[in-house]
Amino acid sequence: MKGLTILGSTGSIGVSTLDVVARHPDRFKVVALTANRNVDKLFEQCREFHPAYAVVADERAADGLERRLREAGLETRVLTGVEGLERVAALAEADFVMAAIVGAAGLLPVLAAARAAKRILLANKEALVVAGDLFMQEVERHGAEVLPIDSEHNALFQCMPESHRNGLERAGVRRILLTASGGPFRTAAPAMLATVTPEQACNHPNWEMGRKISVDSATMMNKGLEVIEACWLFATGADRVQVVVHPQSVIHSMVEYADGSVLAQLGNPDMRTPIAHALAWPERIDAGVPSLDLFAVARLDFEPPDMQRFPCLRLAYEAIAQGGTAPAVLNAANEIAVAAFLERRLGFDNIPRVIERTLERMPVQRAASLAELLQADRESRLLAEQLVSELV
Ligand code: NAD
Ligand code: MG
Question: Which CATH superfamily is domain 2-148 in?
Answer without folding.
Answer: NAD(P)-binding Rossmann-like Domain (3.40.50.720)
